[in-house]
Amino acid sequence: MENFDFLHIDNSDMNIKIKEDYCKGCGYCIDICPEYVFKESTKVNSRGYELPEIINIDACVGCKKCELICPELAISVDKEEKKQ
Ligand code: SF4
Ligand code: SF4
Fold this sequence. Notes:
This protein is α+β, with helices and mostly antiparallel strands. The protein contains 2 helices and 4 strands, in the order βαββαβ. A hairpin with a 5-residue loop joins strand 2 and strand 3. One iron/sulfur cluster is lined by residues 18, 23-29, 52, 69-70, 72, 74-75.
């Protein structure tokens, strides 16, 4: 099992997915992210809600706070497998 070490995490290969049609534009993910990975955008989903935009994925430390706080289960954060 892979050790999860915040101090030494290689964050160059984080993968954040947003299921856009699940989003209700609350902005919680933007507010909670300690690394300012998201910002507000003017893009709207099929329900007319403004979506968060990922602007700084390289800063993501994989804490999953965004995933956990999203009331619509719209976000998933995973560490991609390294390509050999
Ligand atoms: S996992 Fe943590 S650092 Fe990465 S985008 Fe979500 S809240 Fe920000
Ligand atoms: S927390 Fe979830 S529902 Fe709220 S803006 Fe972010 S992705 Fe959308």
